[in-house]
Amino acid sequence: xxxxxxxxxxxxxxxxxxxxxxxxxxxxxxxxxxxxxxxxxxxxxxxxxxxxxxxxxxxxxxxxxxxxxxxxxxxxxxxxxxxxxxxxxxxxxxxxxxxxxxxxxxxxxxxxxxxxxxxxxxxxxxxxxxxxxxxxxxxxxxxxxxxxxxxxxxxxxxxxxxxxxxxxxxxxxxxxxxxxxxxxxxxxxxxxxxxxxxxxxxxxxxxxxxxxxxxxxxxxxxxxxxxxxxxxxxxxxxxxxxxxxxxxxxxxxxxxxxxxx
Amino acid sequence: xxxxxxxxxxxxxxxxxxxxxxxxxxxxxxxxxxxxxxxxxxxxxxxxxxxxxxxxxxxxxxxxxxxxxxxxxxxxxxxxxxxxxxxxxxxxxxxxxxxxxxxxxxxxxxxxxxxxxxxxxxxxxxxxxxxxxxxxxxxxxxxxxxxxxxxxxxxxxxxxxxxxxxxxxxxxxxxxxxxxxxxxxxxxxxxxxxxxxxxxxxxxxxxxxxxxxxxxxxxxxxxxxxxxxxxxxxxxxxxxxxxxxxxxxxxxxxxxxxxxxxxxxxxxxxxxxxxxxxxxxxxxxxxxxxxxxxxxxxxxxxxxxxxxxxxxxxxxxxxxxxxxxxxxxx
Lengths: 261, 330
Hints:
The structure holds two protein chains of two kinds. By secondary structure, chain A is α/β, with parallel strands linked by helices. Chain A has one domain (2-215): HUPs (Rossmann fold). Helix content of chain A is 30%, strand content 30%. By secondary structure, chain B is α/β, with parallel strands linked by helices. Chain B folds into two domains: 4-181, Rossmann fold (3-Layer(aba) Sandwich), CATH 3.40.50.620; 207-329, Rossmann fold. In chain B, 27% of the residues lie in helices and 28% in strands. At the A-B interface, helix 3, helix 4, strand 9, strand 10 and strand 11 of A face helix 3, helix 4, strand 7, strand 9 and strand 10 of B.
């Protein structure tokens, strides 16, 4: 069984702040991590491999330093890693990113049985690349997968929904996006950590993937950022301070005045 | 022929999802500004009743797509029929609820037609000079807002979560046009099949339906202190919410998470206790009618969106609030 897990390196968003003067992100010194939901996709792959054997390939598209995220994935137990990186890929929105990653999946020597993604990346929160790649690769896709078991000819997948859950049967090859409730990523082993440090990670760029260049990077992206701004501030607010009992008393008076209590 | 704005009319168990009416309400404003016609696109099983309510919330036209295979959501079938209808009718704008279904369908349809798609918009407006949709959403992990446009590709597509826009009817007996669309799914291979669908009873007051929500953040100090949050929520007959930080730290279940990656809520009163107010959190609650923030740091961004700010120690103020509300109610 060959499982491909697509991961994204993201800034640890809890530690990102904005400069209120310039509306720019203070990214300096903010550590990079594997997108947390992608860790659940990786663990799902590892558990399937524990049970059925096979191979796990991790793929990440990003700047050269995204290689670090791939090495981390190897240390947790993935077998091979490929970095998709090229200046030409820069500025890609979810459409162009989906297209580019799908070319890499099609280029792999071994046929892919299952493609796994985190349900979304915590920096963009779009949840679009998994479904996008699945369509470009021509495979059926289920979002928000909590569990996946191998059945004859495919997989049985539990999908978390807004009200509860669905159970699906889906034919192989298939694509799933994985939720946090699915599992927790195992610790890396020391042996694998050592091996991951020395692993050869090939970088595939436009030369390797041979894309339609009108469909990658900024030019392949239908959406553009028009402007970026800090959120609006409420003007008619009242700030109360002082002794808690008096403050609360005043608040309750005002809430009654507004008829919300 | 007039250009069109489409709202994907998602159904759950025969009922149109609430977010559809919210999108129609917002769609009316976009239609007015743009001069486009507001339409609903309604896939359903054959013989399902047409939904008068779609007209009552402002749709001028319903595209009615009927097929037994459209009774429940299946990504291949739905994406095919919506994509084909888009290719045929060429709408300018297509809006979807950011539900489990919308978040599967919209990205698939976007890729099929090389259309732009903006996820989880918190504001939609129309630029009449450039004649484009302005799609605003939190970006970069919710640390800043970004307005996204789609200048050269059509349709312009966006998903919006429920409770972001309010719904408002235009009347009870509104009329409109019904266009029956021929659907042919006979040649589509069934690559996946739903074999079970379960609605779970969640043993808490539904955050989305609550009039009062009391939320706790890192500032409450430790997981046990959610007790004071629960007590205040109990006194108000409301629900307990939580920030992403507390959920990520394992202090409380993710069912309680309010924010861009949790639930979007729109209560009458929202009380944020010890929550600093990352945009990620604000995106999920800033449309509440009234916001009260309790925080010891007067510079915390939560005070920027609050109607009432109480500066001080959460551990003193919150129990005091519970006490006085209980006294008032008795």
